[in-house]
Amino acid sequence: MAAKSVKKVVLAYSGGLDTSVILKWLQQTYGCEVVTFTADLGQGEELEPARRKAELAGVKQIFVDDLRETFVKDFVFPMFRANALYEGQYLLGTSIARPLIAQRQIEIAEEVGADAVAHGATGKGNDQVRFELAYYALKPDVTVIAPWREWDLTSRTRLIEFAEKNQIQVTKDKRGEAPFSVDANLLHSSSEGKILEDPAVEADEIVYQRTISPENAPDVATTITMDFHNGDAVAINGVALSPATLLTELNALGKANGIGRLDLVENRFVGMKSRGIYETPGGTILLAAHRGIESITLDREAAHLKDSLMPRYAELIYNGFWFSPERRMLQALIDTSQGSVTGRVTLKLYKGNVTVIGRESPNSLYSMKVVTFEDDQGAYNQVDAQGFIKLQALRLRLGAAAGRRGGTP
Amino acid sequence: MAAKSVKKVVLAYSGGLDTSVILKWLQQTYGCEVVTFTADLGQGEELEPARRKAELAGVKQIFVDDLRETFVKDFVFPMFRANALYEGQYLLGTSIARPLIAQRQIEIAEEVGADAVAHGATGKGNDQVRFELAYYALKPDVTVIAPWREWDLTSRTRLIEFAEKNQIQVTKDKRGEAPFSVDANLLHSSSEGKILEDPAVEADEIVYQRTISPENAPDVATTITMDFHNGDAVAINGVALSPATLLTELNALGKANGIGRLDLVENRFVGMKSRGIYETPGGTILLAAHRGIESITLDREAAHLKDSLMPRYAELIYNGFWFSPERRMLQALIDTSQGSVTGRVTLKLYKGNVTVIGRESPNSLYSMKVVTFEDDQGAYNQVDAQGFIKLQALRLRLGAAAGRRGGTP
Amino acid sequence: MAAKSVKKVVLAYSGGLDTSVILKWLQQTYGCEVVTFTADLGQGEELEPARRKAELAGVKQIFVDDLRETFVKDFVFPMFRANALYEGQYLLGTSIARPLIAQRQIEIAEEVGADAVAHGATGKGNDQVRFELAYYALKPDVTVIAPWREWDLTSRTRLIEFAEKNQIQVTKDKRGEAPFSVDANLLHSSSEGKILEDPAVEADEIVYQRTISPENAPDVATTITMDFHNGDAVAINGVALSPATLLTELNALGKANGIGRLDLVENRFVGMKSRGIYETPGGTILLAAHRGIESITLDREAAHLKDSLMPRYAELIYNGFWFSPERRMLQALIDTSQGSVTGRVTLKLYKGNVTVIGRESPNSLYSMKVVTFEDDQGAYNQVDAQGFIKLQALRLRLGAAAGRRGGTP
Amino acid sequence: MAAKSVKKVVLAYSGGLDTSVILKWLQQTYGCEVVTFTADLGQGEELEPARRKAELAGVKQIFVDDLRETFVKDFVFPMFRANALYEGQYLLGTSIARPLIAQRQIEIAEEVGADAVAHGATGKGNDQVRFELAYYALKPDVTVIAPWREWDLTSRTRLIEFAEKNQIQVTKDKRGEAPFSVDANLLHSSSEGKILEDPAVEADEIVYQRTISPENAPDVATTITMDFHNGDAVAINGVALSPATLLTELNALGKANGIGRLDLVENRFVGMKSRGIYETPGGTILLAAHRGIESITLDREAAHLKDSLMPRYAELIYNGFWFSPERRMLQALIDTSQGSVTGRVTLKLYKGNVTVIGRESPNSLYSMKVVTFEDDQGAYNQVDAQGFIKLQALRLRLGAAAGRRGGTP
Predict the structure, then answer these.
(1) Residue A333 — φ and ψ, nearest 5°?
(2) Which subunits have 3 or more CB–CB pairs within 8 Å of chain D?
């Protein structure tokens, strides 16, 4: 693959070994100016070292942004309005961060007049797709550089050789192979590869970084309340919090109670199965709480419609189509349902379990008067049920009369 | 509502106070012969007392059947192939039992020449619908009697008066109001009503009957294996078990480890919200295990297609449409996917948590050779990803070029 | 069914024999004041006779409204944005009119302080459901009176006896049985019942009232253009027209060219099949034109998402759930897609055929540069297709390698 | 792209100029033995010339197969059971033929011990995807050669130069550019490219090859009957016909009556929009007839479930996933519904119109007794409708009571 002609490239730069090598490699291979962009998405690493390393590498335009509030408010929360789970289980922690990074990269590219963007994702994973689909959707003529698909630094040894030859600092712990690969942000931490590659073998406890184990969690439950407004969480235990602060607090609660671990074999968009260990402590609580408040405030058919479209919505995000017409259409549908999703949920956190134990709302559709086993004073006329059933059954009876017993088609 | 003309009616008879009153009420109101049918679906009650009570009430044709194996094999297992959850959470324990009871009732009706069937479900709940849709689908000209919608015994006091006036034994504990209402079978136990009617108030520990609390479960995890063949569980810890025996064993494991409790506000088919406490110890393990074995044996699009239709399938069962063409069509789709769902899952059970920690299968689609972070020796060509992404992005780029940035529709 | 206690009822009143009988029957049976509401939805009948008849019947508050523009703008057009077809064929002409009538009835009820509403739909059809669901959604405590389900005027003879006894004018043509029943509005005319009840027998030409037959249409085609803005039709042959005027003009074009006839057996919400003859001349052209402009302005996945949800949306409208959360959610999704659906379509109308023969738009996503068979100057790199296909095929290849040839699940 | 190492390749060979060039190019470029495969799918061309040309080119193993019956029976008919339409309009005539050609190619490859297959589809279209996905699904280790993506014969001039240099006969009409490109088989003929590339310009009459224009069709209608058995057409006018013979006969009827033309802008799987002119005379009649017989024999929910999944099924076929688990799963669902789809439909064919004017079936679910406007003698109790509506409305009333008027979510 011949090197494309590029004048200026915005690199998603973490400051770690890999993207430091990429930085240098871009400068050498493309002979172009590199602009670095380092984002704080709550991954738990300091950003200033990245700035210094970029300076050392001769970068003139360095962007370091704290995007945590934007991340939670404009990406995580909209996604949780959908109760999104990929393949029934995965809370999409990595998937939902990529579009934001890409969006900011493209903004910077416009700002500094860059014609290219680059990322450090490999050619086997989903992240390359997520980054690049977002780039193209936001700037269709941008040149995308994906060094891992292009270069010949295909082994750890060659990567480190390149680093050393180019005065890139290789810390001791990076010299050997990491036993697995990690991605982290405010929503979750994911681990995969290497020692995790055999799906028949249990993941070692050392893999888990964001949660203590259920076994080590306290022997007494923690009870909290969460308040929602129009589908988004706004307070914990009655204390109003900003989106990122709230998620940070939920993470602490989840971590302490061993909540949010997931050991999953999933299907990647590029066609293979992979195994990941996910830790989503706060998100796991948030999902349970959101379902809890929806259970009394959402109309049945609104809820079922959302549920029926959720897998598709989750798949879109997993596959990297955040910036697509179809995601926006589904989001409009979902958001339209959330105007009444306001109220308080009480949850019990205990050794890996999140249990909704109470819900209340000014918009509640739950009617004790109607549902009661006691005398309902005419709120519901039981005789109506007969007509309801008779007409529901009519087509089945006509079918049975035509010889199709028991719904044989 | 005028009493319909009925000659012989088959009553779903538990032997409890309510259906004993119904038995007598049917004899008096319809002046017809009553045939009783009592089924063992694993509810954990002896059936012989029901037979004796029926004899005392003058019933001549009494049917008492152990349907546990049929229940699990032909109803529970097919449903679990779909990973069915109603409203994202409910394992449909009550819903799936009703069609079997109704089916057997109709078989008996044909056998004894009855022209009517009767059940003890109230006019507010889902069960009346489930019973009656099944009746009509299997015998379209049957007369259905639902005493709770017809009679005037609308208070506990009047019911007990009727019982006493008619020599029906009222045990001491039935004399007062039960604090909540219970339905149970081999798959689950559900509790609702009375003290559970306020969804803001936590359910009391006394409500739980099938599981010990996570707090009281052992401090060490239990690890088990489950074997699947064509989508159905066939063995625990390597020991082959019949369907009902296997579910019984899973229930014991779940109960001991505090697994399978659910406190839910759900939407009934008849249009109201209700709150239920469900305990599905074995089913909760079974679902996790089935998802685990599917994760390595199901093709991605097969899995996603199933996931996208699951809410509809679950809704059908919840609403009582087991015997319908649409349920059979969806079942055909689901079953077609299960031919390769064979293999072994390892699970950890610990204080309410069920965690899949390993999966293996002769049919595994997981390819370590393809997914590896190490050199894959050409199993996957990373350069292919570029073309893949470029064509996935083409429509987004054309859209952006036409002025729709970021997928604005 | 005992007469409910009612003080004042708003009746949907056409001025015809049936609703005139209902008017009188309501006055007699409920001893209440009746307010009449007569709407012009483009059914092609004069409204002033209805006013006079209501006056003669002693009605004090008489409402006669021309709702044609509202009908097309707020009901027909939103529905056409979805390309809605019930059961693949029916353009929902009756279904879409009912919610508007009901909405206005409830507004009037609020205005005049009525506690009840009444309609003239029978107990077998869909219209009773559509009226009443709308009533309840807009005024949950309203009392609904459906005379056809309540009274004993169940034969034509008794109806006419009642009319004569009560000085209601029975025109000669109403004295005998009408050979079929008709509903009409600006969107369509439907005919059903009586001579149309046998679905094996062709409908007689006399049934058709809104269209000439294709055989009698001109021997030369009519070519027109239609302009769309944000998904709605705004002009014919370059002349801007209001919604109702535009549909009126399309009806004339369709009628003259024998367009829009449909002979259909459909499934009613109440559980039976029925046979209807529909004539939707303008709507048939509108649907073709809308699909035409969407074909160049809608993104592929936006279009496919709409298509996949269309049957559900159409079913909702058919079943009477216009005023429901789920319809509004779907509408939000659909409307979100229409912002770019602007441009011009050229259509040929000829003896029953509507053919899109040209489309153009400032927002077109069709790129001659990309699609051309000629040299595209790098707009599309054919080599990308290889990677695209390789990754699309990966899961199939892994499946085949695991022994599942040809996608055997 | 370096030439892969190939020993023997099976080429899908039409005998035309393009595939003749490919044949020679494969021999030269890959230095491998080429096996040709020419199929009769009803495209209306003689096959023997292809055999002779292959012999002249030195091919030793030549396969010429008449696949018409297989094509209709195992591909076209299963697809029509679904009423499949891509993007609401396209009958998938090209899409459905590709998997059969690919399947036979792979069978031949296995038979002759070939390690590669080749096709003549370009790198911009859908057909390359359809061929190759089928190849990979059936023989995962096969080498695929797509000359159009590989070679440098990218202009007509160079192609003809290559032909002349290699003694490939170039007929006079092939020397100039064809004004558009055609694909044909027993189901349809499609035309695209060149003079058709501007979607604003009407297609010229010369494009149409399979149908006369509605204008030129007879002035009197043709009435036919079609018989179906288990969802498949089996007879025309009472005469039993084999699948291919039946479709041939329908094509003649459609052609003569100007039926089945479509001018469409569609979305390709590879990401671009394209414009095609399709002629599907017999298929258009078949679809109308199949919908007609389903209208009286399919249960409502069975029909709606099919309709809701149809767009997905059609998309799968369009995209080339015939041999995939998800297509087989959907097929199982569809086929399960067709057991009762048996009976006779009467159709009127007139100048482009296909109208179902009658349907009858021994399995009919249409009940004149229930639907009648006359006295139904108790077949349907109109009072049941009240309870039906009341319970359907309950959630809407609870919503309205909670302040959400008119279904505001």
Answers:
(1) -60, -45
(2) A, B, C
B-chain residue closest to D396, CA distance: B271
Residue B1's pLDDT band (cuts 50, 70, 90): very low
* Ramachandran area for residue D237 (φ above 0: left; ψ -120 to 50: alpha; else beta): left
pTM above 0.95, yes or no: yes
Bridge partners (DSSP) of residue B124 are none
| The token pair that represents C312 in the structure block | 């559900």
As to burial, measured by CB atoms within 10 angstroms (0-12 exposed, 13-18 middle, 19+ buried), residue C130 is buried
Question: Strand, coil or helix: what is B223?
Answer: strand
Count the Cβ atoms, other than its own, within 10 Å of residue C357.
17
In D74-226, alpha helices (H): 77-81, 98-112, 127-138, 147-150, 156-165, 172-175
| Nearest-CA distance D326 → chain C (Å) | 8
Chain C to chain D Cβ contacts (< 8 Å)? 311
The verdict on whether residue A95 carries a ligand-binding annotation is: yes
Q: How far apart are the C-alpha atoms of C51 and C48, rounded to whole Å?
A: 5
Chain B, chain D: beta-carbon pairs less than 8 Å apart: 80
First to last CA, chain A: 56
State how beta strands C33-40 and C62-66 pair.
parallel
Cα distance between residue A363 and residue A278, in whole Å: 35
Measured distance CA(D236)–CA(B66) in Å, rounded? 53
Q: Tell me the C-alpha distance between B80 and B84, whole Å.
A: 6
Report the b/e string of D303-324 with b at 16+ CB within 10 A: bbbbbbbbbbbbbbbbbbbbbb
Which pLDDT band holds residue C323 (cuts at 50, 70, 90)? very high
Give the C-alpha separation, C312 to C327, whole Å. 9
Length of chain B as a residue count: 409
Q: Which residues contact residue C140 at a Cβ distance below 8 angstroms, ignoring those fewer than 6 apart?
A: D396, D397, D398, D400, D401
Is residue A186 within 8 A of residue A248, CB to CB? The reply is: yes
Residues of chain D with pLDDT under 70: 1-3
State yes or no: is B181 an active-site residue.
yes
Per-residue pLDDT reduced to its tens digit, A269-324: 999 999 999 999 999 999 999 999 999 999 999 999 999 999 999 999 999 999 99
Judge whether D52 counts as a catalytic residue.
no
SS3 of residue B56 by DSSP: helix
DSSP string, C210-261: S---GGGS-SS-EEEEEEEETTEEEEETTEE--HHHHHHHHHHHHHHTT--E
Residue spans of alpha helices (H) in A260-383: 281-297, 300-319, 325-336, 368-371
Cβ pair D299:A399 closer than 8 A: yes
Q: Which residues of C are annotated as a binding site for ATP?
A: 12-20, 39, 120
Phi then psi for C299, rounded to 5 degrees? -60, 150
Contact check, Cβ <8 Å, C337/B409: yes
CB A346 within 8 A of CB C346: no
Q: What does the alpha-carbon distance between residue B183 and residue B42 come to, in Å, rounded to a whole number?
A: 11
